[in-house]
Design a protein that fits this description.
By secondary structure, the chain is mainly alpha-helical. The chain has 8 helices and 4 strands; from the N terminus they run βαβαααααααββ. α4 packs antiparallel against α5, α5 packs antiparallel against α6 and α7 runs antiparallel to α8.
């Protein structure tokens, strides 16, 4: 499989209400923003910036995640991974931390391991996060059309989210690449031109060539 997962697919932001889980320790939602900063008034900031809220169990876990995402967007994937791992240590059910570890993984095994965890936890995340995770799952399973559907839905729900738009643009790019490959595979093979047979020729004093033939031996006549 292509190691497309090693390329950082920058995450996503948009307008959404917070998904609140039942239990004695409800998860808090902050917001993803272009500057990757945290905010205490999560819902109000989300409505103002159109950013997908980051669903985490604590402000500390969310802050670590946003620090890691900022590092990843600066192409410091190794440093970013350390922050995502620290965020997971604070919140083992942090779906987007698993997502980012999958995106920034170095091996297929690591990619699918964290992707599996992210998908399993996606129902506990915000709607924008869920669509983001499902799009990655579809892409990882060589289903670009399905991934594009999730990306289109993400942008439709969060039209002011620049990361959502970036993700959609990568989806369109992938679709165009697959279309080109499909068209190329349907082209008929080129026919190989016939190789001309060599002829024996010799040069004349005028510079023109003429075909030469091996003379036939003359038969001797016998006198009686």
């Amino acid at each position: 499989m292509s190691r497309a997962w090693t390329t950082p697919l920058l995450s996503f932001t948009a307008l959404a209400l917070v998904t609140t889980l039942s239990g004695c320790n409800p998860r808090k939602a902050g917001t993803e923003s272009a500057s990757a900063t945290t905010t205490s008034s999560a819902e109000g900031a989300s409505a103002n910036t159109g950013a997908i809220p980051v669903t985490a169990a604590s402000d500390e876990a969310r802050s670590l995640y946003l620090e890691g995402r900022a590092l990843s967007e600066q192409l410091k994937a190794h440093d970013g991974r350390a922050k995502y791992e620290a965020a997971l240590a604070k919140d083992p059910s942090f779906a987007m931390a698993h997502y980012q570890l999958a995106v920034n993984s170095a091996t297929a095994k690591d990619f699918f391991s964290h992707l599996k965890e992210a998908v399993a936890l996606s129902d506990k995340a915000s709607d924008g996060e869920r669509l983001t995770i499902l799009a990655l799952e579809a892409g990882g399973n060589a289903q670009p059309a399905k991934a594009l559907e999730y990306q289109q839905e993400l942008v439709a729900k969060y039209p002011n989210d620049e990361r959502a738009h970036f993700q959609l643009s990568t989806g369109y790019f992938g679709q165009q690449t697959m279309t080109r490959r499909s068209r190329s595979s349907r082209r008929p093979p080129r026919s190989t031109p016939a190789t001309p047979q060599p002829t024996t020729s010799s040069a004349t004093p005028t510079g023109r060539s003429r075909n030469t033939m091996t003379p036939r031996p003359r038969s001797r006549s016998t006198s009686s």
